[in-house]
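ARCHIVE CARD
Drawer: 12
Card no.: 0347
Subject: one protein chain, sequence and derived structure
Cross-reference: see card 0346
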Amino acid sequence: MKMKKMVAGLSTAVFAFSALAACGGGTDNESTTDNNASSDNKPEKIVIWEDIEKSETTKEVAKKFEEENGVKVEVVEVQMTDQKDKLALDGPAGKGPDIILVPHDQIGTIADQGHLAPLSDESVLDTFTDAAKSAVMFDGQAYGYPKSVETPVLMFNKDLVSEAPKTMDELYKLSNDVKADGQYGFLALWDNFYFAHGVIAGFGGYVFKEDGGALDPSDIGLNNEGAVEGFEYIGKWYQEGLFPKGLVGESGGQAMDQLFTEKKAHTVMNGPWAVAGYTDAGVNLGAAPMPTLPNGEPIKTFMGVKTYALSAYTENQEWAEKFLQELTNEENALAMFEAYNEIPPVSALESNETITSNEVAKAVFDQATNAIPMPNIPEMGQVWEPMAQALQLVATGKQDAQKSADDAVKVIEQQIQANNQ
């Protein structure tokens, strides 16, 4: 396996909402799409796997596409988390789709396994944000059309907090001020690396070193001086009793949500996927970008991008790409946002009133400028568990930050080496 893979760089990132959602695309793709597919190779139909309960807009675009081009588009609902494994079985058997939907951080693994085809023309991605474009790059090639983005933001109860704090020092003071009343000023799942990454990166840590747009999995920065400082900062919130003891492990998310919906927590760090549950529970919800760290740096959250990718087994790539250019253009991306609150990484929509008037969507767009696409190279799979274990040791006070970070990196390096043999 190559030691350097093309991947999303640090780039202004994310516009998050509901754990994954949105859609992106071009504003005017007619001239491009007309050249991409010819009538000589027109198929009877193409098949796209869409996420469950989020296919109505796709079906509407498919109907219009068939009317205009004479190519039927069959839209099949398949749970997004199941599509990767299902393609591995159905694709080689000739029963798979032309297009699948996957989280961008799975692109490297699926492409390495031979199940994805790169785009024939990367220039069609120019209408997407830089962060979204970088997220779908792997090994020097583009592997999909960004549909939607997500990243954690600061959510607050407007009945308890009139205005979102701008700094973590403000949140630290608030947390201490309300502690005696059994309240929590701020809660976050910082024993989970997905959320903790923002702090660690903000202090100077990094997962894999970026080199000319490529990530080098042989250079891991999760135990450098900045990363250890991030570990120590995270541990401080637990050790000073500003986070409850139950905010560790698998039940941490449930505990945090309960405290927030019961008005015992003033603010939380969470993503768009949490919005429906909070509002249904009656929370007067506000949202803002994450506050800056004590060092003055932003919290550099992870960004995720739902991506429409092409099956390596398709015989209709030209027409599949033509459909995706239509599905992810500005008009249809906005329609998906209005239907499903999925935030589209389309540059032209950043100032669209429909999106800017939505407080959570705007917070995600703003946070995006400091977000980092999750590495999509296969080696990232070896990072999550060792980092979770290290963070939990720090959170529970069982081990200091330096040793926890060193041990985690050692395990990650060993696992990557073992998988590359």
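Annotation on reverse: The first strand starts at residue 5 and ends at 6. The two ends are 9 Å apart (CA to CA).
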